Amino acid sequence: MSRRAVVIGAGLAGLLAAAALSPAVDEVVVLERDDLPDGPQHRRGVPQGRHAHLLMAGGLAAMDDLIPGVDMRAHLLAAGAREMSPGSGMLALTSEGWFRRWRHDGPRMVTCSRALLDWAVRRAVLTVPGVTVRRADAAGLAGSARRVTGVRLADGVLDAGLVVDASGRGSRLLHWLGALGITGVRARTVDSGLVNATRVYRTPAGAERFPLTMVQADPYAGRPGRSGMVLPIEDGRWMVSLAGTRGAEPPADPEGFLKYTLDLPDPIVGRLISGAEPLTDVHVSHSTANVRRYAEKARHWPEGFVVLGDALATFNPAYGQGMSVAALGALDLARTVRRLGAGAPGLARRAQRAVARSVEAAWATAVSQDVRYPGTRGGSPNAADHLVAAYTRRLTRAATGSYPAAAALWEVTAMRTGPARLLRPDTLLATLAGPALPPLAGPPLSAAEREVLRALDRVGR
């Protein structure tokens, strides 16, 4: 059997999969059909690349485990990324009210443009011995229904003992499997019709330390969801991303963009950007549906083939899970290969099931929220969704004024632990007790931050 592994796709999932496999094989060839930029630049193969991204603490920890000899936190910060704490460095209006800011930081997250993150990760992974990127478009899988033996290219077949499909939202997985005689892989799409609109601004003088600011959508209000975020990123910029589900889509024109921010449940995003200098036009994207391919449940699955990242499951980007799920999936792959060996019988099936575990919690979070918005296609709330929603609302309400409840929510949102954390006795007690402090009437700003907002606000004068 070949001691080569081939990864289809040089996005985040593909590069991390290459790092995961490198200790177990002689070489890893990453196939990418796009030209890869030499620096932190947007590329066509990342449809959500121009919009806000958050790298959660769990995803960052997985990257550290995958890429030997590189401190990914330090590497990303040196490249220009920012670091935020949900406990003290974030203003967040939820469906249940404003979160408080606490002295305890909680798990930190990294904020930067997706272009910077991809470039920094690519630089780190390409230092791993045996990993190379080749410009080529995968045309299909070589082999049979029993075993995948390589990847079909325009000029022949690239043999491999293990193939990983990390080709993203546009994966041709079902078509490729069908060509090998494998059918019946179940897929599900849940589409709230969410549209993203993003514009980048220069961070105003004096606002360099202003916290990440978000107004979240309310899935329980019985009307389309609307949200907005001001995300500090590299090079002294604010990335401002708006999102609206079917019936409340944000517009692409600058005047409409600003008006949309002011019509959110709190106008703080609009007040901040009304006095900021725009650096780009408004970029709009519609590639936001939740899509799940249940590869791990297929009746027949070939040896030598694993799927991960967006090729396995894509999530509504509003929940900030996709990059961390990809990193955790690559880590699951690495652990399975390390335990069994790259050529072990049954490796692909076991790896696929391991990868699916990191997908399932994120899928449940996204879909249980999205099915509640009017006009969502692909599902409606069932009894379990209503039960989860009732508990989630009560926990979120408690978290607006209870540190134990907030800490549990941060741990799960950061993907440092699974949803079982929310059912621990201490979390249950905090949830049942409710908020210990009264609700906030507005965002919890410091005196200096209140002055920054007042100076920038061109609409409240």
The amount of beta strand, in percent, is: 15-25%
Termini Cα gap: 72 Å
Nearest-integer average pLDDT? 93
Radius of gyration: 22 Å
CATH-scheme architecture of the largest domain: 3-Layer(bba) Sandwich
Keywords: Signal
InterPro entries: FAD/NAD-bd_sf (IPR036188)
Signal peptide: 1-19
Protein name: Pyridine nucleotide-disulfide oxidoreductase
Secondary structure layout:
Blueprint: E1 4-8, H1 12-21, E2 27-32, E3 54-55, H2 57-66, H3 72-79, E4 82-84, E5 90-94, E6 97-98, E7 109-111, H4 114-125, E8 131-135, E9 140-143, E10 148-153, E11 156-159, E12 162-165, H5 173-179, E13 187-190, E14 195-202, E15 212-215, E16 226-233, E17 237-244, H6 254-262, H7 268-273, E18 277-278, E19 283-285, E20 290-293, E21 305-307, E22 313-314, H8 322-340, H9 347-370, H10 383-399, H11 403-413, H12 425-433, H13 447-456
Parallel strand pairs: 1-2, 1-12, 2-8, 5-15, 12-21
Antiparallel strand pairs: 3-7, 4-7, 5-6, 9-10, 10-11, 13-20, 14-17, 14-18, 14-19, 15-16, 16-17, 20-22
Helix pairs in contact: 1-4, 1-8, 2-8, 3-4, 8-9, 10-11, 10-12
InterPro entries: FAD/NAD-bd_sf
Protein name: Pyridine nucleotide-disulfide oxidoreductase
Signal peptide: 1-19
